[in-house]
Amino acid sequence: SKTGARAINVDYMHINVLFGYIEHLLVDTLWTIENLDDKTKHDMIMAINKLFWIQNDIFTMHYGMSTKDKSLSIDTTKIKPKRCWLFN
Questions:
Q1: What is the mean pLDDT of each successive set of 10 residues along the chain, which is 88 residues long?
Q2: What does the pLDDT read at residue 61?
Q3: Contact 72, 64 (CB under 8 A)
Q4: How would you label 64-88 residue by residue, b for 16+ Cβ within 10 Å and e otherwise?
Q5: Domain for residue 87, yes or no?
Q6: If you ran DSSP here, which 8-state letter would residue 2 be given?
Q7: Is residue 32 assigned to a domain?
Q8: Distance, CA of 55 to CA of 14 (rounded, Å)
Q9: Structural domain containing residue 19
Q10: Which of 31, 32, 64, 81, CA to CA, is 20 to 30 A from 25?
């Protein structure tokens, strides 16, 4: 970088958005190719989807282990409703 730092820090959110955008572009491109049969398109889209799932898992593990706070963890606290919405 210009400041002489050896590493850059990119927020996980931005990497995840980039993955989603690139996956969308690839799937859209594959979907519009006319000289491929539907099974081949399906298989290629599934392969790209799997690639991005694996890549996302790797980045999640990296960012999860490198953060001091557990900001990536999901709060699983459940709130009990006071009454059922069906009987309103």
A1: 72 89 94 93 95 90 65 58 58
A2: 86
A3: yes
A4: eeeeeeeeeeeeeeeeeeeeeeeee
A5: no
A6: T
A7: yes
A8: 14
A9: 12-67
A10: 64
At residue 62, the pLDDT reads 80
Residue 80: left if φ>0, alpha if ψ -120 to 50, beta else—which one?
A: beta
Among residues of the chain, what percentage have pLDDT more than 70? 68
Query: What is the Cα 9 distance to its own chain's centre?
Result: 18
Report the alpha-carbon distance of residue 35 to residue 13 in Å, rounded.
36
How many folded domains does the chain comprise? 1
Give the tokens for residue 80. 């009990």
Q: How far is CA 63 from the centre of its chain?
A: 13
pTM for the whole thing?
0.60
How confident is the model at residue 75, as a pLDDT?
Answer: 55
CA distances from 29 to 19, 25, 33, 44, 85 (A): 15, 6, 7, 11, 44
